[in-house]
Request: fold
Amino acid sequence: MVNIIYQIAGAIALAAILLAFIRMIKGPTAADRVVALDAMTIISISLIIFLAATLQRVIYIDIALVYGLISFVGIVAIARYLERGI
Amino acid sequence: MTTIIIAVLGAIMIAAAVLAIVQKSLLSAVIAAGAISLLASLLYIVLAAPDVAMTEAAIGSGLTTIVFLFALNKIRKEDKHG
Amino acid sequence: MTLITILGLVLIMIGLWGMLTQKNIIKIIIGFSIMDTGVHLIMVSIGYLKDRTAPIIDSAVDQANAVNTVVDPIPSALVLTAIVIGLAVTALMLSYAIKLYEKKGTLDINEFKELKW
Amino acid sequence: MELAGAIITLIGSIFLFLGALGLLRMPDIFNRMQAGTKATTLGSILFLTGSAMAHAECTCTGKIVILILFIIFTNPLSSHALARAAHFIGIPLAKKTVKDDLAEDEKKEEGGQL
Reply:
């Protein structure tokens, strides 16, 4: 029972990453695509935790820690480029 | 379960690669290349290689995008002056 | 994992198509980076064995029986080096692109024809 | 305990899905940014908390608390930087927008300087 509910939650998160990517395809300006990339990053952090729980290794959580910091630096760099250049 | 994850993420990766090639705007192409690296680091976790996933997340998705943005910035600045 | 090998092959083909058909130098470098990702995926998928786990010994892996429960760590060690070298090659290509832009004022590959005959 | 964790995870994933749906259906970039940042922040916090509760036997609670703190600190900052950049490069608002405080402030400052 617990496992089935948990796997349904993972499938819904996978569908969410697909929807965010459709906005990246459609987006009229580059800023829309950056917003879609930001949302995809946050959803994929959740998906990494889901994979770590499904495959039963604690060590995979460290990847989510690294990703949470690095993606922030990348998004801020793109925002500064959009505004006036790095 | 892992087969479904690989199929969905692979389809998104192929679509992002085609988007990065056919896109006119250079910034949008760089963003799509960053999305490819993000999804590749998810696939490395499924392939049981967490060290590669960590490196790909830090270097492929973070640092490569910033290096591309530096180059685009140089080109745009030259454009403004000349 | 056959599926991942096919995915890597498709990514290599898309990157090669982009490198051969695009006119802008930055787009050619992006195609090279996509091709790089495809090669890395294929190399990691060679070392994967079914129903096994990551080769890091902690409380989840039995130490005495570790040979039968972990995947092959050699291809992932190779790919780890290849990713870093890929970043260096990309940065070198981008610096050449900036120099070419300062020389000619354009990034169209058809304008650079000193070596054509 | 484990069933409660699984249900909290399900609620968090539904928040993630609704955030992505709002990202797809909102009319202009600022509305999209609001849907794509607030809803996914709440959803991922719920998802991580539920995962830590559903797998209580693993010793990962400290790491998940640090990860939630990262998300709470970095996510509004990056979204604020993006919104500021999008406003300054002049992306048009949606037709239904009734108020734009930042543009009014800028106009007032220019008037004061003159």
Remarks:
- Chain D is about 80% helix and 0% strand.
- The helical segments of chain D are 2-25, 29-54, 61-88, 101-113.
- The CA atoms of residues 81 and 87 of chain D lie 10 Å apart.
- Chain D has a mean pLDDT of 84.
